[in-house]
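A reminder before we start the practical. When you read a complex entry, don't treat the lines as separate problems. The point of joint prediction is that each chain is placed relative to the others, so the output describes one connected object in space. Small molecules and nucleic acid strands, if listed, are placed in the same frame. In the example below there are two entries. Take a minute to note the order of the lines before looking further.
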Amino acid sequence: MTLELNAYNWLLAIAPVITLLVSLLVLRWEPTQAGAFTWLITMVIAYFFYGMDFRGLVLANSKGMSVALYVVLIIWSALFLYNIVYESSAINVIGSTLSGITADKTMLVLLLAWCFTSLLQGLAGFGVPVAVVAPILVAMGISPLMSVMVCLIGHSWSISFGSMGSSYNAIQLVTGIPGEKIAPQMALLFAICVFATGFEVVYIYEGKAGLKKRILLVITTSFAISGTMWLMCIIGVAQVASLVSAIVGCAVIALWTKHAKRKGKSQKQHVPERTTKQMSFHQAALPYYLVIGVTLLMQIKPIKNEVQKLYFGLSYPATVTKLGYLVPAEKAYSKISWFIHPAAILFFAAIVGGILYIRKLGVSKTIFRNAAHNTIIKCVPTSVAIFTLVMMALIMGDSGMTIMIAKGAASTLGSFYPFVSPFIGVLGTFITDSNTNSNVMFGLLQYETGNLIGVSGTLLAAAQSVGGSLGVSIAPTTVMMNTANLGIYGKDSEVIRKNLKYCLLNAALVGVAVWLIA
Amino acid sequence: MKQHSKNKRMFLLRISLIILIVNFVFAYLGGTLDNSIFITVSLVLCLVTIILILLARR
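Here is the predicted structure of the whole assembly.
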C-alpha cells in the first residue's frame, strides 16, 4: 500500500467509526440511520481519499451484501422459529417447567438468567432471551431492574456461538479463518466468561454472602458448560456450542436442585398452570430438538460432503485502488449451503414444529401467519442496519482503511494490543448493538493487527468475538428494548451503568488471558 | 398519529430493504462486468436507499 501511515490518513480511516459512534451515542440515532449515514461517509472517504473507484465501491457493496445476506437469513429464520414456539404458547410450557424445578431462588436465577437465556440465545438470540426470561424472573418476585441486569450479564457468554453461530460465522467470513481453527480458541476464552458471569449473577442477586454459598454450584456448572462448549468446537459443531452447553448447564443445575432436595434444603415449587393444556415439556421443545438433531445429522461426513455441493456463492474479481491497495479475487464468496446453512435448519424446524403443534396439539392454525408477521416487524429494521454496516465494513476493508487503522493501533499500542483486543469487540457491540456487526466491523482489523505485531491473528480475532459477545450486556438498544418490555423505560442508563463494571471486568479477564497466551 | 408515523417508518424501511436486495444484482453485475450503466444504477440506488433510511427516522 502506497498510502503512508500518518495521523491525517489514520484519522480519515477511523472517521467512519467515529461517525458511527457520534451518530449513535451523541445524536442518539437508531442503528438503521446511523448505519446508512456512516455507509455514505465511508463511500465518500474511500472514493476521494483512498483512491477507490466506482467499480471498487459497487464490488465492495456487493460483497457486503453477500455477507449480510448470510447473517440476515439466520436472524430471520431464528426469530421465525422462536415466534412459532411463542405463538403456540410452547415457550410458556418450557419456562414454567424450568421455573418449577426448585424453590431455591438463587438456583432458579442461575438456571434461568445464566443457562436458560443462553439456551434461547443458542436458538434465537436477537434480544429474545432477555425478553423471555426477564418477565419470568419478575413473576418470581425479582425487581425488574435486577431481572434485566442478571439476564444481560448471565447470557453474555453465549452470544458468539448463539443464533446458530451467526456471529461466529461473521468472524470467519470477514477474516477468512476456518472454523476449526478459531472455534477452539474462542471456546477457551469463553470459559473465563462462563465462570465470571456465573459468579456475577450470584453476586448481583445475593451479594457477597451468596458467592461463598454457591461456589461449588457455579464452579461445577461452569466446568460442564465450558467443557461442552470446547467439545462442540473440537468436533466441528460450533454453531450449536452455546445451545448444547446451555442445555448441559441447565441439566447440571437441575441435578444440584435434586441434591439440595434430598438434603431437605429445597422443596419443589408449584409449577404454574400451563397455557397449552396437553403440551408436555418435550412436545413444547420439539422444534429445538429438531434443530439440534438436524444440525448434528448434517455434520456426519458423508452427508456433509454431499449436501455441501449445493450452495449459493458469488465469485468476485480482484480489485486495486488508485493508491495501489490490492484486494484478491474471491471464489464462492460468503457461501450459503442450501442444507447446511443454519437458516435452512431453523426454517425446517419451524415448519415441522408448527405443523406438529397444529396437528397433534390443536394449536391454532394462525400461528404461521402471526409468527411471520412478528418476524417481519422485528427483522426489517435490523436487516437494513446489518446491510449498511456490513457494506461499510467491506468498503473500509477493500479500500485499505481497515489495514490503516490496524497499522496505527499496532504501532501505538505494540505488545500491549492483545490486552486491548477484547475491549475493541465490546466497543463494536456497544456501537452497533450486535456481536455479529462488531465482528464484521472489527474482525479483519484485529486479525490484521495481530499479524502486524507478530501475535496470532486468529487469537485476536477470537478475542474480538468474545469481547463482542460480552458487549451485549451493555448494548443500548437491547437494554432499552428490555427495560421497555418490563415497564421500566428510562432506567436503561442505570442498567448500562451497573452492567458496565461487570462487562469491563470480564473483558479485562479475557484481555489478560489473551496477553498471556500471545 | 403515532401509529401513522410508525407505519410510515416501517414502509420506508421495507422499501429500503427491497431496494438493497435489487441493488445486490446491479452492484454484482456492474462490478464483475465492469459495466458503467449497471455501476451508475447501483450507485444511484445506494443514494436512494440512504435517503429513504434517513427519512425513516422515528
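Discuss with your neighbour: Chain B has a mean pLDDT of 92. What might explain this?
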